[in-house]
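Lecture 7, part B: from sequences to assemblies.

Below are the input chains for today's worked example.
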Amino acid sequence: MAEMMQFDLVSPERRLASVQASEVQIPGAEGDFTAMALHAPVITTLRPGVLKVVTPSGTDEYLVTGGFAEVGAAGTSVLAERAYAKADVTPELLEDLIKEANMQRDAANTDMAAKYADDLVAASTQISA
Amino acid sequence: MPNLKDLKNRIESVKSTRKITKAMQMVAAAKLRRAQDAAEAGRPYAERFNAVMAQLASGVSGDSGPKLLVGSGSNQTHLLVVMTAERGLCGGFNGNIAKLARVAANKLLAEGKTVKILTVGKKGREALKRDLGDHFIGHVDLSGVKKLGYEDASRIAQDLLSRFDAEEFDVAKIFYSTFQSVISQTPTEHQIIPADFSDVDTGEVNTIYDYEPSEEAILADLLPRAVATQIFSALLENGASEQGARMSAMDNATRNAGEMIDKLTIEYNRSRQAVITNELIEIISGAEAL
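Predicted structure of the full complex, as structure tokens:
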């Protein structure tokens, strides 16, 4: 049995999850990584992607659009700008998010906005798969 | 002596006023619960966020940091973001925030600074229009917003950040009311640009974190979000405070109306009795005269 750690997923509006997890797969800005108990302390920003939380009762998936993650001695917390549980993700929601990202890309025309939109599209195919 | 009919009308009108204030109080109580829940739900995010920011910010030394943290190097132009309610009838709530903002604005003006004001919520705008109307640079209308979302805060933050980038101001402060309890809300001012995390408790002993990407990049990414987060929690606090203030104001109004009704009823009964007595005297003296 893997060691457990405290995992929190909060968005500005509410707390989406606060559970004991054995591992958390985090879509970091510089690449995905998996945090387990006793992971070295890390703070990283997130790219849009799918966050996977492995708990004793199963694996939960969340779509996050950005924010940051803090892995520390006390556990892992993910502070997402916007986060949706997989069950709440509908094709319409994805469409809206992607439309918004594309609009931002067209308006800003920066690499960052373009990457955001691309990441979001990738994440959406991943979560609907 | 007031006319009996007038008194009766008066009592009726105070009674209907009492009904309205009672209803408003109950609506405010229900809304307060929702607003409080929202404020509480937003707290973990804000707390963690500020703790991490404080930690990051403490690592930045000198003037090398991002502008949002160390400031633009000047402190000439101040932007005051005054957040109030969209509606009145909530006791001193709007007035207190406006007063705090007015005092701050006058102090800055006396020091020879330039003051710009951005109002969020109609009532603060009305309260400050007369003496500080020339300093208004914008207004955010939230009257159409049913349930405050992070997007609303985010929009305000975007506006602020683009103005900051355009060097329209050097220092930004928000004015809002923190929710202590139903009967007590404290008007508060808080500086958001340049960010000030000195009063945040970082909690545990400083852990040495790995930063990915670099510390500066994270800071640059998070600082704009910090503005939005702080505005959002201020809006939530304000929402709860507004309903709390309205609830206690309406509670008072209901009680006052009740007292007034009692007084008027006594007066009404007295007058009626006086009329009866008068009539009796007339009849008796009429009978005696015969």
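Note for the exam: The interface with chain B takes residues 8, 10-15, 28-30, 40-45, 67-68, 70, 72-74, 77, 79, 81-82 of chain A (CB under 8 Å). Keep this in mind when comparing with the next example.
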